[in-house]
């Protein structure tokens, strides 16, 4: 399945106020000190177990990618003239997001929302509603740009443009980042560290967060994800753009996600679910997701928190940074 935004040729407790959380975010160190980095980065080793706070044995976070129209427009700019397609994407900020915010408020759960800069500019009231609800805003590109074959300068420009948009619209400086389509480059960790980001949530090599080496004696916290914990593969269908026409029943999707949660819970891991308001904001899907949120929130041994809170906790553990070195293929350029 191809996601919109990929290159065309590849197609086939008491809640704290958000402003206080942002202040804490800005104070959190985005890079590790030289002293801690001197312990060295062990290459290609498993992530260390994480000791969770408050006596909890596992962690969980509900995250939402507020892609809206940007998820389609980057890879399919001609879709801008397709009113039905644009309405499908606009359902997220216009209808799905308010429903999801009501559910989260009713369960007293704070979440992380990854927002492309274009979404902030096109739907400013929706993005401000996320902040007003006490949730974390994080970076998700500007126009949901695929970073495949993107050079360093172009990637840096996308990061800066997205940061400017979120600051302009919502008055936030995010400490978290998720690459569109979870497609980091080998330049990404360093570019994020240089801009003061605390964490990324795009990689898939562990069940717990860890410190990802960013070069130059710096690191960022990595909070892993994987494709099985994403609603796109369950629900997304747009003719000629995404999906094969199979749309799963919400009970099936949530059953799979709950199975992953229970397994990670036993492992002491970190459950990170990714949903999109234009998909999971539909009534039956939102109702099924509400049941999962209620279940996870009711597990006394699980710390349920936004990703920013999880990243700050992990940063305080002073873990040794890890790396995923670029493979060297014989006969290929470095």
TrEMBL record:
Gene3D superfamilies: Glycoside hydrolase/deacetylase (3.20.20.370). InterPro entries: Glyco_hydro/deAcase_b/a-brl (IPR011330), NODB_dom (IPR002509), PgdA-like (IPR037950). PROSITE patterns: NODB (PS51677). It holds the Pfam family Polysacc_deac_1. Residues 12-29 have a biased composition (Basic and acidic residues). Residues 83-305 form the NodB homology domain. One of its GO terms (molecular function) is hydrolase activity, acting on carbon-nitrogen (but not peptide) bonds. Residues 1-44 are annotated as: Disordered. One of its GO terms (biological process) is carbohydrate metabolic process. This is Polysaccharide deacetylase. It comes from Streptosporangium subroseum.
